[in-house]
């Protein structure tokens, strides 16, 4: 019997101005997402991923300490607890990206994974932290991830998480495949002009090289007062052959849904034996520190 998993991706616009109080912004964004989460539940989505830093603006467009107040602890986070309730209600695995506080002053860009019974499974911390024009000042806000590249065993599939800028680095994507990921989700916040021409190239390439499904999520709209560019949406699922099988619009907050046939992973890997034919003993140069 085929293993079909229904996946969902939520792309969303900022619904409150970034100059509003942080708690006002958070509540408005969570409320907006709850409507889309309920839509996913009604459509019987089994694994759902939200966008990077889903409950606020992409505040890395500026360097101000006020945004440190966005942090929450995981799993004690009140936002994660709300999402656990919806995961349990709809028997839906959820990937929930938030701004994480480990201890006071030590913060990460993190995604929590919740299983279909509402239980907390674990978290992934973004490894690769950009400091890139225009307005991706992430080193001001985040330490690099230190939890490796975990694969989370959930009710419906074994899933991995990569976050935004991580997608430009094939090494972690390969590790996720070697550790058994069947679906890798990449919640992102990226703007037109900087990376749009790469958006439909890099992640399908990861899917092909590693023989798994990818769910790529990007927010939509422009965010005042920074107006650093248009978040162009176009969230999508692609299969292990690198084909995009469902994709969102450029400018609309919406739910993207696709049925993922996990049996395709075995079919593809039986033809393309990339894991068998790799030569890790010859790759030492890519992990050696420079003198």
Tell me the layout of helices and strands.
Blueprint: E1 4-11, H1 22-42, E2 47-49, H2 78-90, E3 93-103, E4 106-114, E5 120-125, E6 131-132, E7 136-137, E8 151-153, E9 158-161, H3 170-178, E10 183-188, H4 196-199, H5 202-210, E11 213-218, E12 220-221, E13 231-232, E14 236-238, E15 244-247, E16 254-261, H6 263-271, H7 274-277
Parallel strand pairs: 1-2, 2-3, 9-10, 10-11
Antiparallel strand pairs: 1-16, 3-4, 4-5, 6-7, 8-9, 11-14, 12-13, 14-15
Helix pairs in contact: 1-2
Q: Please, what is the oligomeric state?
A: single chain
Number of strands: 16
CATH class: Alpha Beta
The CATH superfamily is identified as Carbon-nitrogen hydrolase
N-to-C SSE series?
A: EHEHEEEEEEEHEHHEEEEEEHH
Q: Helix proportion of residues, in percent?
A: 10-25%
Largest sheet: 6 strands, mixed
Shape: globular
How much β-strand is present in the residues?
25-35%
Q: Output the strand order for the largest sheet.
A: 5-4-3-2-1-16
Task: Tell me the CATH architecture.
Answer: 4-Layer Sandwich
Which residue ranges are poorly predicted, with pLDDT under 50 across at least 5 consecutive positions? none
Count of structural domains: 1
